[in-house]
Amino acid sequence: MYTFGKTSMSKLKGVHEDLVSIMVEAISVSPVDFGISEGLRTKERQRELVREGKSQTMNSRHLTGHAVDIFIYKDKKAVWEFDEYIPVANLIKAIGSDKGITIEWGGDWETFKDAPHFQLSWNEYVEESKTPEEESESIGERPSDTEVPSEDS
Length: 153
Ligand SMILES: [Zn+2]
What we know:
Muramoyl-pentapeptide Carboxypeptidase, domain 2; five-stranded antiparallel sheet
């Protein structure tokens, strides 16, 4: 069984407790090791990612602590192949659904697959995550976040 290291735990600070509890449970039963590469994100960082083309929205779930990015860790290095994320994503979604929580996986997005990305659903967590300021800053129509997994971060 695996557990999160100090870095992953620190990345979970400020993330919604429901999402944290799902991730902590997932790592304890996951057949492969994974870590958290990003949780809560500042507006400055989000602007930077949009500028760099790594995200297409200022309405990211990361800004409100409703999203995390993971990285799968195998043979002492992070792996980014899409297929590696499928079983872990299924596990995370199943743990969520046991708790009555819908987890949206970036790998399920049609236009822009984001395998490391997991977020609480907009439908179930809509009230607390949308502020008028964020809405006015939204760039695209799509409410979800669309970063490119970066191999060097
Ligand atoms: Zn993300």
